[in-house]
Every structure is written in structure tokens, then in C-alpha cells.
Amino acid sequence: MTATALPAADPPKLKMKQGNNLAMLIRQPVLLVTILLVFAVLFIFVVLPMITVFQLSFTTEEGGFSIQPLIDILTSDKGGYPSYRATFWNSMLLGVIVAICATAVGYLFAFATTRTEMRGKRFFDLVATLPIISPPFVLSLSIIFLFGKQGMITNGMFGIDDFEVKGLGGLVLVQSLSFFPVAYLTLRGILESIDDSVEDAAFSMGASRGHIFRTVTLPLSLPGIISAVLLVFIQSLEDFSNPAVIGGGYSTLAVEAYRVITGMNDTITGGMLAIILLLPTVAAYLFQKYWLRKKSFVTVSGKPTQVRRKLHEKHIVYPLFAACAIVTALVFMFYGTVLFGAFVKVWGINYEFTLEHFAYVFTLGADALLNSVELAAISAPIGGVLGMVIAYLTVRQRFPGRKLMAISSMLTFAIPGIVASIGFMYTFNHQPLLLQGTAIILVAMFTFRNIPVAIESGTTTLLSIDPCIEEASTISGADTGYTFRRVILPMRRNAFFSGLVYSFVRAMTAVSAIIFLISPKWSLATSKVFALFESSKFSEAAAFVMVLIVIIFIAIGVIQTIVNILLKPKAKAPEAAEIKLALSEGEK
Amino acid sequence: MSTETQDLRAFSGQSSSVVLDQITKVFPTPEGMGETTAVNHIDLEIADGEMVTLLGPSGCGKTTTLRMIAGFEYPSSGSIMIGDRDVANVPPNKRGISMVFQSYALFPHLSIWENVAYGLKVKKLPKEEMIARTGKIMKLMALDGYEKRFPNQLSGGQQQRVALARAVVIEPSVLLFDEPLSNLDAKLRERMRDELRALQKRLGITSLYVTHDQAEAMAISDRVVIMKDGNLMQVGTPQEIYEYPTSKFVANFIGKANFIDGQMLGKDSDGTAHVTVGGRSLSLANPGGIEVAVGQPCALAFRPESVKLDDPGLDGIPGKVTRVTYFGDKIEYEAAYGEHTVVIEVYNPQLAKHYREGDEVTMILDLATVRLLQQD
Q1: Pick from B107, B150, B176: which is nearest to A487 by CB?
Q2: CA gap A496, A490 in Å, rounded
Q3: What is the pLDDT of residue A262?
Q4: Which tens digits make up the pLDDT trace of B257-302?
Q5: If exposure means fewest CB atoms within 10 Å of the residue's CB, which of A267, A586, B28, B279 is most exposed?
């Protein structure tokens, strides 16, 4: 309150940490062992599978090294079939179009919810975040229901029976709607952090709203836009489930790698396609994370004392509202279609109400559902805690290889599921790491694929909390483990919660990552849905994904409750009488 | 000794001395290219039960020194003894010391009771004893009744007391303070300062206090350590440091000081120093312990309140008032004498004659208050 009256305090002490060296580490055995363990698991479950994929593809029959197969794949055509070069360009084209579309929609929502006084902002915020926790296949399924051979719109309304929704057009629509939340979340953060007073300054100088947007808001959010484009591009490239079911003749790298390995048992080509897929995603990711973030010029100033009136002019707000409403209507229509489809007898022919598809799910699909829930429930807390541990180590501790740990743990975000799946399959199918066919391989896959979000949110909160609080715990006599349990984890309860939810949801919804790892004993819900698609049992698939959605919502509620019970602050203290008694006892 | 004081002694069971021997800390620069020396070969002994303050401007190495004693930083060279134990290989949580942080660093997710009892819980004390000890310190700190509150529900002063209670309840052998009062506003800061000193005296815990506020350092310390650029400049009681600074830096950092250039003529066996200033020769009866070689330039240092102002033409230094600032308890004048500017403080202005800008005056300086320092 009277900060100006006081002499300036010393600058923040964060920099002091840099001097801490190995000598301190060796004096904390628990910490040292933890660091070594994290390195070990990251090596086994992240680095090793990638090495395997490269080895698989670049090793000649004589055991030497050659990039000739890569060149062959990209240059040769396959006698009439589209060449892999065409597949590569297919993936790139789809990625670019979807990245642009999804970012545009994401920006629209983000701008509307952060910079205007539009009605229903909270509702649109919800709409834009919901698809993140949706199971795969939902949108593809509704596309088939609406525009397919028996499509309600194409066939039912217009009587067209040869309309082909499969291919690039359908994919762009489905992927754009699936991935615009990714762009939305990125852009919302950026747009929120742009200081209102910068826009006010331009406005007070007489600039029009349009001029301000072009010259101030848009340039300031440009790093966020590029970031969003790259993240959606990665998602599109990685996506397996949508192109696999509605790609039709439009082949993409992820799907082609799967078909080559399962259909032709050609692991070298499969591995090669995986690498061709891996390189652009990893490159885009590293560019986004380590270069672009430094370019961000978020304007940081003290908290504004006044609540500022945001954009409220009708000619701006109404069109924005209409655009958001259209996208929302589309999302609702698609989800509604699937919900409807789950309850009718034969889509396109007999729309009588039935529960038989749900009966199917709870009988023939029960095992897979239980497996999915069980493995997601096991892997989520492991991933949640591991993510917090890695965030803590990389933010608060100084040790050799710290950057390496940060990069390799975050890299799993950029490794396409199909590539990870191939890597796991060939790494863990022989001794001493024979895990194929077990639940462990699936749990490991879930854990390591899903930690980036836990790490990211953990890192953000760690950076925003005074490190002295941890030091206060240490100086009171607590070791690193005690401090982690009693201080670090509870204080980052929200980050921990979102890490848990994300891990759980991603585990429940993974398709490509587990496609080579499931076994008769350990089949999963998503692989069952995929199989239903392959045999055109769309109604059963609809019932399946609806059950998945319900399970995910229940799980989020359960996780919330557990996290609150375990970590929510409780005003614990003995009663006054108890203290009095203890004090009088002590005097005797 | 009152019963309360006897009670309090229980919290200072194993107070220890602290000895720093040639402590040095070198940091790599942020770019990773070079190195900066934050603390440079510091020797310091803190006696059992003593309160010592590390005082210096930002970046002088005082906080780094404190953090090395806490164990959060590891010295590049030199050794630290707490009691008769070399703590080089002892992690912070095993050193038996406590620390009060600038930001208080209370656990926001724990109740006040749990905050205070935290260290005892770590030690797995029996429940009865834990409640008794926590209850006692809470009562002492006037925190009883707030057990179930959370830190953000308390005022700044109360939070400060929680931080202090948490640090004291584990009966540390040494108590470290890292600018604990700098987040409080001026009035509260003074009150907490006195409270803190009173408590430290009663508990008799060896304490090391870091601050950049010289008034705070003077008010609470047995001894003050002045640091600059990682070097130890001077150690002494507040009175020694104020009255006998050994360098222009210290003289200027603690309070205000006037410096006048002179030249050393010689020193008598009784300690009286003879110097020339602007052609006049002066004898300083009490020049302090700094040696200046005969014929070398030197600086004469004196405090603003050592100078009296009077009408012009009297026996003294003639000058002209260039600035007048009225503070209520004192008037601060600046007067020009040749190319020197002299700062003069006249206390109790209601009883003194006031001069205005441009007035001719005579500055009367008691030579017994003038110290002889080296020119830097």
C-alpha cells in the first residue's frame, strides 16, 4: 500500500538459484534418485521407442545404415496406386487447410469471449472447450449419418444417393471442428494478456475500432496465431481416427503407416512413413515451443485498477455473436445426431426407438469399456504425479541435463500416436523389455503420452508461486519428498487436477497410440469403436461413443471430488479446550 | 527473571554461535560466459545469543551470505560452522536453523495452526507436546483465537507474527531474517521491529538479520556488518559504526556525512592528527583509527548535526545557505563553502534561529567530532 514510501527491496531472488551445483544435489539423495529415475523412464519410454523406429527404417539387410529406402519411398510410384509422395502432400495439404480454418474459428471465439461485452460469453467458452474431452469418431460418425450413403440430409432430404462426403472436404470440416478448441485455448491466453490500455490509447487518439484491430490487436496476437496454426497443424497430421474412417480415397501418412504394417506386414515402409510423419510434427513443435514463445510480446503492466468497458458496439458484437452461434449450432447438431443415431434401429431406413445398441455396448463391449476405464484410472494419477515431479525438477532444481529432461518429456506431445505405437511395438516385443500383450505397455503409453499437459500446467503454476514457500518448508526440517507432498502438490491442486483430467480423457480416447498394443486380453473401447466402423456398424458405434462421453463426465466429477478430499485446504486446528489442556499439562 | 521469561527460555534450548571462515560465492553470469563474485572471502563470528545485521545496498551479497548459512546456496570456498559443527555437508533441513522470509512464505493452503506447527509435525513430535508448544508460542505472539484462519485472512502484521512463530517454535539454534519487515508500511514496520528485537532478546537466539534499511539495522542489532560488492566493509556496534566509520562508503551509508578534502601533516603520540584544509591547519583530537601517511591527501568526515549555524563574521567557516528543507523535528541546510557543499542539521527548530536561502552564515564545527578517512 505504501510501497513507494519504502526503500526499494532487493530484486527477486530467482536468479540466485543458478549458482546451485552438483555439490548440493549429492547432499539430497532422495532428489538425486528421483532425477535418475525420471531420466531412466524417459529414456526407456520416450527416447528408446524413437530410436527403434529410426533403426527399423534406416538399417539395410546387411545391418548397415542407409537412407536409400527413404528416397525410394518418396520417389517411386506404386504402379497405378497413389505414391507415398502423394500421401505426404495429402497430409501436408490437409494440415495446412485445417490449421488455417481451425485457427480462424478459434480466433473468432477467443476474440469474442475476451475482448467484447458479448452476451453468452461463458457459454461459448464452454462450447469451445468441450470438444477437447470428446471421444474420437463422434464428428466422423455424424458426418456419415448426415451426409453419407444413407445420410439424413443428402439422401433423406435431397434424395441424392451417390454423394461422397469421404475425402478432403469431409476431413477439413471434421478436423476443423475437432481442433479449433486447441487454437481457442492458445489464443484466449494471448488475447487475455494484451493490456486493454494499449487499445484504449489508440482509441483515444482517434483510431476507429477496425483500425485498432488491424494495427494493435492483430499484430500483438500474431505470435499466438502462429502458435495456434502450428499446434493445429500437428494435431491434424497426427490424427488417425478421422482420416481412417472418413478419409475414403484421400490417404494420409498416419493411416497409410497403419495399413502398410497391418495389411502388408511391411515394417520398413511403415517405419519410414512414421518418420516422414514425425519430422514435420516435431519440427513444428520445437519451433512453436522454443522459438516462437520468445517472440511473444505480451504487454505486462500492473493490474488495471478500473474494470474497462470492452467492445460493445452493436455492429461489431452482433456479427461476432452470429458467427459463434453458427459454429455452436453445428457442434450441437453433430453431437445431437450421434445421440439420436444411438437410439434408432437402422439409420436411414428405420428410425424406431431402440436400446439394442446400448445393450450391445454393455454386453459385447463391456470388457473393453472396463479395460479402458481401469487403465485410464491407473495411468492418470501416475501421469499426474510424474508431470508435477518433472515440472518441479525442471523449474526449481538445477542439475546437468535439466533442459534435456524438459525437452524429452514434452516431446511426447509432438510424437504422433501411430509413430509412438510403432515404436512401442518394436521396442517392447522382446527381452529384456517384453511388455507386448500386457497392461503395462498400455499404461506406459498413456502415462508418457499424456504428461505434457500436466507438466505444462505444473510449470506455469510453479513459476507463479514464490519459491520461498518451499524453502520455508525445507528450513522447518522437511525433506524434498515431504515438501512435495505437503506443500507443492496441494498448492498446485488446480494444475494437478487438470493434469489428471487430461491424462484420463486422453487415455480413454486414444486410438492410434494403442492400435498396435492391444491384445485379446487387453482390448480397449476405442479399438472396439474403430472395429465397428470398419464393419459399418455405425449405430453400435454411436451408442459406444455416447457411453464414453458419459463415463468421461462421471470420471471428471469423481476426480474433482478425490482431488478436493485429498488436497483442498481445510482449516485444521485443535479445539481451544484441547490446547488449554495441553498447556496446563505442560506446566506440571 | 519472571515466569514468562523462564517459559521463553524453553524456546532457545540449543542456541549456537556461527562462524564464517573465508566464505566466497561465485555465480556464473546469466549468459553463462563469465562469473561474478557475489561474496568475497568473508570472515564473521556471531556469538551465541547475539543479533547481527548484514546491511548493504542491493546486490552487495548480504542475502547470498544468509542463504549460504541457511544451506540454500553452497559456498564456492570457505567454511561455515554452526556451533562446533562444520555444516558443509549438512542440507538445509538438517541444520537446525530457522528463517523468516521477506514474503513471510506462509503456507497459503494450511491453517495458521498448521503453519506454526509445521516444523514440529515434520519432527514427528508426540501430539501432546506438539499442541503444548504450538499453543504456547501462539499465545505469546497474540495469535490465539486465529488457529483456524488461513494466512490470507490475517493482516500484514499478524502474518509477520505467524512467520516468526513458525520459525521460533522449532527451537532453532540460529534464526535467520531475510528483510522480514520490508513488506510492511512505515508505521507497522517500526512497531514490528521493536517487537522482534524484544522477542529475540528474551529468547536469546543467535540471529542474523539482513536488511538494506540502516535505521532498522541500528535499532535492532548488537552488531552491524556493512557489506558492499561482496566485501565486508566494517563490523561494529551501531554506535561504533556511526561514530567511527572506517571508510567514506560506510560514513555515507549509515546516516549522512560531509567530506572535506585535506592533507595529512602528522600525528602526535596522543593520537591528535594535524591536517591542512584549504591552507588552514587543523588539529583533530579524535580522528579515529584510520592511518594516513604524512603528506597524503585525506578526507575529513563529520555528521550534519555536528555543525552549528550562526550569524556571519564569527569564528568558524564562512558559508552561504543554498537550500533549506524543513522536516519538523529538524531543519536541513545546505551551505556552500568554496567549492564544498556542507549539509547541516539543526534539531528542534522551534528554539533555533532560522536562515533563508542566500543568507551568509558561519558554520561552527566541533573538531572533536571530525574523523580522518582515506581518500578513495
Answers
A1: B107
A2: 9
A3: 87
A4: 999 999 999 988 888 999 998 788 889 988 888 888 898 999 999 9
A5: B279
